[in-house]
Design a protein that fits this description.
Blueprint: H1 3-11, H2 24-32, E1 35-38, H3 40-44, E2 49-53, H4 62-76, E3 77-80, E4 88-92, H5 104-107, H6 113-126, E5 133-135, H7 149-153, H8 155-162, E6 165-166, H9 172-176, E7 189-193, E8 202-206, E9 215-225, E10 228-229, H10 232-235, H11 251-256, H12 268-282, H13 299-314, E11 320-335, E12 342-346, E13 350-354, H14 357-367, H15 376-383, E14 397-401, E15 404-407, E16 462-463, E17 474-481, E18 485-493, E19 498-507, E20 510-517, E21 524-532, E22 535-543
Parallel strand pairs: 2-14, 4-5, 4-9, 5-6, 9-11
Antiparallel strand pairs: 1-3, 2-13, 7-8, 9-10, 11-12, 11-13, 14-15, 16-17, 17-20, 18-19, 18-21, 21-22
Amino acid sequence: MDRRSFLKTIGTVGAVGLLDPMDVLVRQAMAAGNHFALHSFIETHPEAVFIKRTHVSLKTDAEAKKREGFELAREIFTLRESPGIPQIAMKPNLTCTSGKGDTESGMGIITDRDFVEGVIEGMKDVGLSADKVTMREGNWMGDAYCPSERTATGYERVAERTGAHLTDFPSGREIQQLKSSTLEEGSEVTWADCPDGVVFKRIGYVAPINAPDAWNLNISKFKAHGMGLTLCCKNWQGTNIHPYIHYCSAVPRQVSDGLPSQDLNPNYREDIEAIYNRHLEAGVPRWDRPGSMDTWSSGRGMETWVQKTLDNHSASSHGLSIIEGIYGRNGNFMKGPGPGGTAEDFMSNVLIFGRDPFRVDIVGHWLGGHEPGNFGLFHAAMDRGLSNVLNPMEIPVYRWENGAPTRTPLADFERTPLLTYYMQRDYAGQDESYWHLVDEPFDYGPFTSVEASDETKPGAYVLGQNFPNPFNASTVIEYRMPRNGTVSLEVYNSTGQRVDVLVDGWRTRGAHMASWNAQKRASGTYFYRFRTDGFEETRKMVLVR
């Protein structure tokens, strides 16, 4: 297209009168973008999961891990006009069981503190005040876990260096001596009702988790556990106060520790048994492992854990869920299939994130070498309407690189097998190894996902308005495609000269995003043109210095 034809085209999108963007209204719009917020593409695509490769050679390289956290936060958070995020209620995996998090062997059992420190510094660099960041963990139980837990994990020093607030909630033993009804809303505990809960009818959370003005940030660890991989869905149980937090033990433990009767479904045993029998008949894998619901490693016991977990998620809001996998650990805490029966760590160098913790965990299990369809948690989540997908290949996956997502087949990503002892098949004549992968083939045919929105499978080509607009230095452009095809996305100045090519190649069906870094361009009005398979559209954008 020559310049004359292009100028004729942009006339239809209002080029006239916009050649001087340096007016008062534009200046005011730029100044108003001071609210901390999530990246617009991540925010508007809760159905998507994003995978970023990190570049850390040694798990002990603190500066490299901080850099990865800092860069991620700088890329996925931004400033924009309201509404924004008022405060971050962060839940890393801080449980330090059978080891100290400040030692090399103990590091793999918690979310890496250097990475989290980098995330906090990155959020501060974007524009969030440190006093708006809290880190919370309900699992600190004195000598039942690490002695001097907060010091042992190193997170106390992270809080001191960053200015973020680390919980000073009483230890587990002290909490158990409190009457739940005396804990005040908003001070130590946030209360949430579970009207449709199978086990719980109300849950107490370590404030400000789930507070009305808090934005929940879940940062789990890429590691194996008795529930498979203990990723975002399981990490979230650590937001509870005692005795609600005893997910891995029988419900009677919670009752004996003081769970108020009004917070418990009085018919939970009958209800769990009915759900378990339905799932067993439906063929949920490994659900035939014998045992009672008080033995968590049995089918009935795992069903009990699953329903507690789903009650928890049904009562919670989720801002963003992240799996920190700079290094991954197989085994269970300090024990595993390594030399002398120890756990093993691998430099997996992966970060997995998205708004839906179930989708994030499904992709996380697949990247950990497991077949997600073999885990009852994901079946039960679909059964209760908390998730609408089971097959990891049906989840829109994006490679996150240099601050931008690119739609990428999940099979293109490298997997790091992490061994677990989940529901070992050591019964009915089976002899599965104690440490194993749950990787047997699963037929996803009967479990077709219900699409989260029309955006995942658009029925027509859509070219979105760039965001932010007006912008300073960089902006992003979203486009959606109803079918695969060759795409061209070009940027022109107000005189019709092409100044940049953002996309030129084959793209798959679905939502995509392109970014334009205009740091070397002059202020003014620009136009971006999208072309593919006979479809063409042009929009305008304003760069203001």
